[in-house]
Amino acid sequence: MLQYVIWEVNPEIFHIGWFSVRWYGLLFALGFLIGMQIMSYIFKKEDKPVADTDSLLIYMVVSTILGARIGHFLFYEPDVLFHHPLTVITPPFAGLASHGAIIGILTGLWLYSRRKESILTNQTFLWVCDRIAIVVALAGACIRFGNLMNSEIVGRPTDLPWAFVFMNNSEYAKIPRHPAQLYESLSCLVLFFILLWFWNRTKEKTPRGSMLGIFMIWIFGLRFFYEYLKENQVAFEDNLPLNVGQLLSIPAVLLGIYFLVRSYRTPVTLLASEKTDRITP
């Protein structure tokens, strides 16, 4: 039987003077870099302009960070957002919300698709979202593992043999807890392989919105239940029947169900007419 895991990993890899490199930042960046290599492969296989992945990367980085930052303050610290809005774009950039990141990503991909949704490139909103879902799942695995390296977003106390004792977290140290970050990281990794397998079987015949729907249902359906194993992020959540993460996950799952059902009710259109593919019932 396993003993409790004593987790006292240094979140900092190295530092030179004021400059430091941390595991979280490295894993965050790797999620984007590896993800764009996968997107380049997908673009090649589906005869899309590989050069477009450069602009897609810019849209993804900006929309993810802005969405996650604004989402954190909007959902968890609204007073800070309304009274000190510049906090969103100034160091130390503490606080990122995955629900905000998804909203930002969908917005960024909509803007990207408006430029690329032509008869030549044929990168409609749902086409891009389905493929990006693959790499976002991988990025989610990297980011949640980064949370583990930071000893943050910890779970509730447990006596399970695989419980972690987060020695570097002064607020929750010395008590065995669920490694909730690891649960979510592994869930994202499994989803990555499922979506990659799904796309590899169907490629250009993938029902539009199907992978986006699977992503939303999987990620936020599990997130709803994982929240029961995690400590609340802010004090006001202690007085709520469901915490903020759970409340935000419900509409995300419903949206995923909508995309998934819609994808199988709407046949994949021919190349010449795909430009009409919109998010419409």
Automatic annotation (TrEMBL):
Regions that span the bilayer: 23-43, 55-76, 88-112, 124-146, 180-199, 211-229, 241-261
Designated name of the protein: Phosphatidylglycerol--prolipoprotein diacylglyceryl transferase
Main location, first listed in the record: membrane
One Pfam family hit: LGT
HAMAP family with a match to the protein in the record: Lgt
Gene Ontology molecular-function annotations: phosphatidylglycerol-prolipoprotein diacylglyceryl transferase activity
Record-linked PANTHER family: PHOSPHATIDYLGLYCEROL--PROLIPOPROTEIN DIACYLGLYCERYL TRANSFERASE, PROLIPOPROTEIN DIACYLGLYCERYL TRANSFERASE
Keywords: Cell membrane, Membrane, Transferase, Transmembrane, Transmembrane helix
NCBIfam families linked: lgt
Subcellular location(s) of the protein: Cell membrane
Residues the record lists as binding a 1,2-diacyl-sn-glycero-3-phospho-(1'-sn-glycerol): R144
Name of the gene: lgt
